Fold:
Amino acid sequence: MAQTQVTIPFRESEGPQAKHAPARLKFYVDVKRCIECGGCEVACKNENNVPEGIARIRVVTVNEGEAGESNVAVPCMHCSKAPCVAVCPVDALYHREDGIVQVNKETCIGCGYCLYACPFGAPQFPKSSPFGARGVMDKCTYCAGGPEEPFSDRERRLYGSNRIAEGKLPMCASVCSTKALVAGDGEEVANVVRQRMAARGSGGGGWAWGTAYPESK
Amino acid sequence: MKLIRRQDHGVPAAQSGWPQALDPRLDRRHFLRAAGLGGLAASMTAGLVKETEAAQEPGAINLPQLEQVKTICGNCAVGCGFVGEVQDGVWVSQEPWFEHPINLGSLCSKGAAAREHVISEKRLRYPMKRVNGQWQRLSWDQALSEIVAKLQEIREQHGPDAFMLLGSAHHNNETAYALRKFAAFWGSNNIDHQARICHSTTVAGLANVWGYGAMTNSMNDIRHSRSIMIIGENVCTSHPIAMQHILTAKEVNRAQVIVVDPRFSKTAAFANQYARIRSGTDVAFIYGLIHIILKNGWEDKRMLNERTYGLQALVDEVGKFDPDTVENITGVPKAELERIARTMADNRPGTVIWAMGGTQHTNGTSITRSYCALQLVLGNMGVPGGGTNVFRGHDNVQGATDLGVLSNTLPGYYGLGAGAWKHWANVWGTDAEELKSRFTNEKMMQKVGFTVARWYEGVLLDAEELGQDVNVHAAFYWGHSTNCQSQLDRIKRALEKVDLLVDIDPFVTTTSILPDRPDGVYILPAATVYEQYGSVTNSNRDIQWRNRVVSPVWESRSDLAILLDLAERLGFKDSLTRNTQAAWEGVPESMQDVKELPEETYASIIREWNLGMRTIGMTGQTYERMKRQQEWAHAFDIKTKTAVGGPVDGEQWGLPWPCWTEQHPGTHILYRTDIPVSQGGLGFRARWGTQAPDGDTLLAANGSAPAGSSINGGYAELKDWKTDLTGQVFADAMAKELAPFGNGRARFNSWNIPDPVPAHREPIHSPRPDLIEQWPTYDDVKDHYRVPTLYKSLQKPDWVKDYPIILSSGRQVEFEGGGNSERACWWLVELQPEMYVEIHPKLANDHRLKHGDWVWIESPEDQDGKPSRIKVKAKITKRVGPDMVYLPFHWGGMLEGESLASKYPAGYVPYGLGESANIVTNYGYDRVTQMQETKTGLCRISKA
Structure:
């Protein structure tokens, strides 16, 4: 397998609509498919060297043992109108042009506002005593590293891997057991969703899509 | 639903049009702007322009140069592929292998943690032995010298049968084969592995119905199913990646998913219909379905008339199981039963999937045969989307079973008869007389040995009670956990009593920790599967080549290297490493300090098993074909597993056996008659002659032979097909489109085993004393696999007075087997840090238990006169019904509430410690195979 093989859906730069618009990277969480195998959680640890006690993605089960039991993988959704970005008092959080929400760990003061603002519980803080200092925030980077030289030791140490720069998808979605967690450009993801909905004959399945991307169709 | 654009082989990705806006090399500038540092841009312009220009040239980024190694996951038997990335000999990351036809890049938590099995700080670094209660480091040479001296001494005093070798389903095919050959040259049949307590009842059951004891279709083939019955299997937990195919069938085919289980498992949450069955009543449940199907005339008459034998015997037995009776036995309401029968009948083809929930019972061999009966009656056999899809446990449990790491057969299910020994002596280029001289005598050479499930009785019981003249004095646990075996407290005593105990594993296991003894225990560090070459057979008979990702770490050695070193010291390495055609390549003169064998040694061993494994057609899967398939994985269709074009054109992925010749594509779906034998077609095996004892024919009816057959009907097996090493019989058979094993009938009536027609029997520890009289268990057996086995004398109606709660056990998705590897990986332990017992809210409230409380679980005393107990935390959940509790079985390192951490060598305490469920699982063994009954027992609970 070639090192540089691209494993990400991309927009055609040609075609009738000559789409040159920047891609908008999103997650899609299919609750009709997630089986809580934990693959995404472990793959994230493996890929990004995430320390103990920090979960950049976690799988939540609701209604366990009853009809209607569902599982949801919850990463940072990289929201369009990200509340974390809005509340950050030092502008440590920001959007990249491709929609990825990143945190600058050197600017972050660890106040925790983003934790209260986030509807998904994505921001993570190193554990300490109940009233102790929080330390700077860590969260899912969409495997896009951070505001450092791509592939530098410094980026790897502070943020983890930079798969997006390698032309690869986030690791969690890449290994998802049942392809419940789908990542990529919003249009490509929408194609996947459309096919599944057509097969199922009904809507449903996509979790928090409306909350994370309110303007998307 | 494909996540990625699958690219043509070899097209460099640089051409694929990465949008400019996403170019990460521009990120820095975006960041500067976003962070309000634009003022700096002017002074940095030159640098940024340079960066932008560099972006036009592919490969300009300073990416680390990583070696990419395709390999196969070493946990469950789905057989997922992934890519290991290696930098300077260190395994630094994992990548998905998107073109792999089985998993399409997906991995569950265990597979995603594959790398941690190698880099874990808890990996064993050097050999150790216990001296005066302390662990002491020693060299490999010293360790093996001492072990071999002790073994020789035991052999001289007690003979070869005083040795028990517990092999592993994690060994690759070549090592498994070499291990069985090793036991033959040692001179004992006391060799067994996890398959005994995994699917031995499936193998015996299926083989006695239609010839082969393996999964008939495949994971991928489930994409063709229109109904899917999952009974006694929790796919989401045990085989997560198989759910990908199941959910696709559910979405695309609108397949009806039916889950039958005592527990509302994670898989049940995805079912269209769920039936809560009482544990151990599967035969009654299945007969209830068949009863309804036959009453309504929904059976496949053509299948029954042309390709089965003994239907009347089945009809007579099924007659006892009207829906009311079934409801009384199983607890499944008859309306539900009828709905399920109708669903299966209306949605064909349908598949039946099972695992330990179906196998681990005293009548396990009846249960597995009843599933077969249902599929035959529905006509779901030999068709895409149908079949009995038996999900096996370990990555190579199918392979280790095929290659005979079992006490009842030589490789290839040849058995232990004189003919079997003659065949293999012929393959090995050895004199059968010479082999005989290694054994106690000819009788013991042909007698089945101890099993994994009961070997310890060979230590604990008086020699007079055993099926051999001597006790067991030495035991090797070689890639096997103790804590997945029931009666663990008895095993503990046996581990304390043997003279020599050797534990060979990548991690410190419960085997070394459990016994209270000051010395006589050796720990030898083995490499993980990722540090060894070899082929592995997944659940659906696909044989895949597994590359070694990195060399064995620390002082660990590959299993084959350890094996050959032992053989060298025991004096039979030369006999072991040659066969009738050639000596194995790449084997050094001296094995001293050799860490691993080169790839060509494994290739030599493959050629050897290719030569001898005639019965199941492991003859056409050459090393070269496996390697070629690995390279051409992208050419295989996901639904049919057939390659389109290229040098692999027409081949089935994994060359599933039987793959008769080097030109044969492999048999994806067993017993399929709509395609010719040379393309993977087959009838049922004519294994029991041409005529049954009652005079009925055992040959298939006219018109039912595989397409293109030169004999258009039933025929007996071909002469010498199992022993002809020249390949001529197979070549002739392919030319005439004949299956070498004949074209026979599947049997509803297996007259040669206990309960010829599958029978419902209440578990030994039945919670329903009122049913014991009508559906009793078996009579006690004096010598079964060399041990006395109790049935009726233990089935007491009053057990339930003191132990009123059903006890069942099973898996957690993060761990596997004894969990000794996974509990030493903190990525996994972090997700599942504690042992627990699942208790229904009603049962919990009745016992004044709250979520998180400590609970004592006590099991009946059985033959020991001492109740066993464990202390675990309560997890209150509606997964279980109010009549049962459920325990995961992967835990170890605690005993009766006390931590055993101090007994580990310093620094090797795993991240996860917990009580072992198998301390309290009850006594009970299958009547045919000695499978342990861990799915149905009794217990009582109290607040600790």
